[in-house]
Amino acid sequence: MRYEMGVSILTRFHFPLPLPRATARKRIFHFCPPIACRSSMDQSSGLNLEDLKWDHSFVRELPGDPRRDSFPREVLHACYTQVSPSVQVHNPQLVAFSQPVADLLDLDHKEFLRPDFPLFFSGATPLVGALPYAQCYGGHQFGMWAGQLGDGRAMTLGEILNSNSERWELQLKGAGKTPYSRFADGLAVLRSSVREFLCSEAMHHLGIPTTRALSLVTTGNLVTRDMFYDGNPKEEPGAIVCRVAQSFLRFGSYQIHASRSDEDLGLVRVLADYAIRHHFPHIQNMSKSDSLSFCTGDEDHSVVDLTSNKYAAWVVEIAERTASLIARWQGVGFTHGVLNTDNMSILGLTIDYGPFGFLDAFDPKFTPNTTDLPGRRYCFANQPDIGLWNIAQFTTTLQAAHLINEKEANYAMERYGTRFMDDYQVTMTKKLGLPKYNKQMINKLLSNMAVDKVDYTNFFRTLSNVKADINIPDDELLVPLKSVLLDIGKERKEAWTSWLKAYIHEVQLFHVFSFG
């Protein structure tokens, strides 16, 4: 009954203690130099920044925008625009960094101590070997097609190949305007940047697929933001996160081209071939001998042969990765908040940390996104269905490009549903330490938690204090849970006692049969 949310993540990366000093005139925040673990720094034997192994397959193999300015515009017949960081900085400072992410890049930990590191990772000084660009994509936002979106404040520096031949893409978020910024300023603030840095690394250490964060740098300038969208904007410290992922390709990366002319429709196939070649090589190398043929759930029990169409195998894997990701979100109470198709990774990663939140009091209708409050489209309970809806939009795009047929599209959605239920059942069974999935017990637990607004994370942590002993008197059963079962009356105490007795009985049987 051990719950992983109890594991501290702060031991894995370093946060220099901020010492804000704001002058009355400039109101510029300054941060002290990084306080790093010298022993771990000395043990690192990686590469210098100048020696990183850059590759630029995305720029090299895919069509780009002939223009290189950041003037907002519609970008046609292209997957990206080469554009350089333009954010204004004033004495940028390194606030946080992740040594485990540096290890992915073969980067020496001592590089974080370089005085010019904040200049490189604020975009003020170009990194040797980098080739910055902003990606073009579209998407459905809150169920409606929004047209061209793209990287409005993020710029990819390029891809780094490490010693294990892994490809890692580096991206600066908050680095300035791009052609996809529309009416925005292309900047980011420290408040939201800290949230992204912390949560992306936390999610990784919880075992949930996610983008990572290498560094967090303040720009030294202020950015105006209306935090609560109530018409009261305020100035906040500007910041830039260096995000890291094997790819930032999204469902919307394909949708944008399918939404345009026949000429752009061909880019769906080009981009699919690129993704399969670099990120799904097992599908590229698939052969008939793999025998990946499956019966569909249709009445005619037709067969889908994934070995005869690599695009069908590809979309099925994307559907399954997405389902597995969302099942894990539900397990830890994570609510993304903005599950638009432009925020859905083809690698099944958690990306674009915006107004996310974790459940406190268990409320299936919880949404951390204030703009989602009226309809709660993206609330916690809706995430599995929204994932399926987004997969349906992605399969529609591939069908429009003649890469898959209707039966293959339906099979991908069928696999999404099956994989989600499989992974969710495993997640919840492990969370409760049960011998096997018990739908009635888990549903009753969630119902009780919703009625009494029980803290989702703390409940499972506290449940580990309950002894699997059926001889505990009824009036003592709830004592270990008193910190989370607050202000409940006699009727609710009886409901919880009944559930807990059934739970203890189930767990004790498991231990008896497992350990004798």
The total strand number stands at: 15
Sheet with the most strands: spatial strand order:
1-4-10-11-9-8-2
Helix content: 25-40%
Summarize the main sheet: 7 strands, antiparallel
User: For the residues shown, what is the average pLDDT?
Assistant: 89
Number of domains: 3
- Tally of DSSP helical segments: 15
Q: What pattern of helices and strands is seen along the backbone?
A: EHEHEEHHEEEEEHEEHHHEEHEEHHHHHH
Tell me the distance between the termini.
19 Å
Keywords: ATP-binding, Magnesium, Metal-binding, Nucleotide-binding, Nucleotidyltransferase, Transferase
GO molecular function: AMPylase activity; ATP binding; metal ion binding
Cofactor: Mg(2+)
Pfam families: SelO
Name the descriptors.
single chain; 516 residues; 3 domains; disordered N terminus
Provide a concise account of the structure shown.
The protein has helices at 38-43, 57-61, 99-104, 117-120, 190-205, 251-258, 262-279, 281-284, 310-332, 383-400, 406-432, 439-452, 456-463, 474-477, 490-515; strands at residues 13-14, 54-55, 80-82, 93-98, 133-135, 138-141, 144-148, 154-161, 167-173, 212-225, 234-245, 293-295, 303-305, 334-335, 357-358.
